[in-house]
Amino acid sequence: MRYAAFTVDVDRDANLAERGRYDAGSKAITGVDTLPRFASSGEGLRILSELLEDLGIRATFFLEGDALRDIARHADVRSLLQKHEVACHGICHEDFTGESTGICLTGEQVGQVASESRSIVRDVIGRVPTGFRAPYQHIDDIGLGALAKVGFSYDSSKTEKMNDGKIAPKELDSGLFEVPLACGKDGHGKKIVSYLWPMHEGKRSADDYVELASSFQSGYLVLATHSWHLTETFKSGPLDRAQATLQVEMTRKVLEGMLDQGIRFLPIEDQLGGQ
């Protein structure tokens, strides 16, 4: 049996890192206003929960603190996520390593963000998360050590190459598990990563990701997307109904294509619990 995770980053719409700014903004729809928005992320969360219910898939949702609190004002997120794993994605989409913002967090600061984000998820959802994905997937050994120190069981920020169709979680010296996304080849021999961003932005097809999954032979394949990408793209902004429907159809095609290959979806905490 081949196992996979469908993971969703629930954060601010079209998140935008800015130099010298600790928290992320959202790409401006009109003008230059980059204040964070959450409407697309909330609507995308609702759409994805319906799609996953229809397909019988349980997923892992990495929840940003600010986004979760905003969405919870307008939707019953406990019900939407009842069947799924909840995990953490920072508070305000912090750039832990400073790669995009120029503001590098210390290990102590990463630990504070991780602890507070876990408290937010616990208070809103009613469950204590065990997993973390760093915003922008930016994390280093200092950050990983901080996650382990404050009690997280796993991180899913890294991307690693599939070797001979194999990719799997790896236990680090700290006891933390790294559960990476996959990097492989598409049907034309070009590099492809198991994050669906390029598909949603019109640069790849759903078939490319189904092809990536077909080369997966053993271990645990992690797919990732954003909830806001179901109703908005970074390039074009909020989508009309027809465009949003296309995003859903492409996502469905990837997931159904993997199910048709006999791949079974498990939330990350369930997969690690079986090791």
Q: How many independent structural domains?
A: 1
The whole-angstrom Rg is 17 Å
Shape: globular
Please tell me the CATH architecture by its name. Alpha-Beta Barrel
| Helical content band | 25-40%
**How do the SSEs run, as a string of H and E?**
EEEHEHHEHEHEEEEEEEHHEEEHEH
Main sheet record: 6 strands, parallel
The level 1 CATH classification is: Alpha Beta
* CATH level-3 fold name: TIM Barrel
Quaternary structure of the protein? single chain
Could you describe the 3D structure shown?
The chain is an alpha/beta fold. The chain has a single domain (about 1-275), classed as Alpha-Beta Barrel (TIM Barrel), CATH 3.20.20.370. Helices cover about 35% and strands about 20% of the residues. It contains nine helices and 17 strands. The chain has helices at about 40-55, 65-70, 75-80, 105-125, 140-150, 195-200, 205-215, 240-260, 270-275; strands at about 1-10, 15, 25, 60-65, 85-90, 130, 155, 160, 165, 170, 175-180, 180-185, 190-195, 220-225, 230-235, 235-240, 265. Strands 1, 4, 5, 9, 14 and 17 form a six-stranded parallel sheet that branches. A four-stranded mixed sheet has the order 6-7-11-10. A hairpin with an 8-residue loop joins strand 2 (about 15) and strand 3 (about 25). It starts with a strand and ends with a helix.
